[in-house]
Description:
The protein is of the alpha+beta class. The chain has helices spanning 2-23, 79-95, 100-123; strands at 32-66, 69-72, 127-130, 133-162, 165-171, 178-184. Strand 4 and strand 5 form a beta hairpin. It is rod-shaped and about 155 Å long. 8% of the residues are buried. Mean pLDDT is 74; it is low at 1-29.
Amino acid sequence: xxxxxxxxxxxxxxxxxxxxxxxxxxxxxxxxxxxxxxxxxxxxxxxxxxxxxxxxxxxxxxxxxxxxxxxxxxxxxxxxxxxxxxxxxxxxxxxxxxxxxxxxxxxxxxxxxxxxxxxxxxxxxxxxxxxxxxxxxxxxxxxxxxxxxxxxxxxxxxxxxxxxxxxxxxxxxxxxxxxxxxxxxxxxx
Length: 189
């Protein structure tokens, strides 16, 4: 009977010792389990980036134009040249005689006409026409790119304490006052 009592007490002692070791780390079952640690500090991890936005910007702009200048002869009138041909023909007829008189008259007429036309071209005071300036409003456009700064929380840098030790981790959510941790207990040989 004493043996049975000693054996029962020894078994209860081993069970109590194993339960005490298991509960000192929290609510886990078997060699590994889950528990909660105290959160000491939480810092958001912020990502900053530039977002481009393109917009068309248009305006009306005055543009100056100049017509090309063209040279014009001052006299386009052929009356003086015809008069020169008549005078040249009269003079030519004075120098000719017989059958040569007609040739001298024709030569004088041609020379008189050409002399007056050349004179008109050379000294007739040709002028430049056109070359005036004018303003026309034209639409001009360009693409402007503006950059807007934006911030986004991409995670949280968490400092927590478990069993008197301080640890760090990164989470994608704000953990609040406590953080669920996995506890793994293994014997060391």
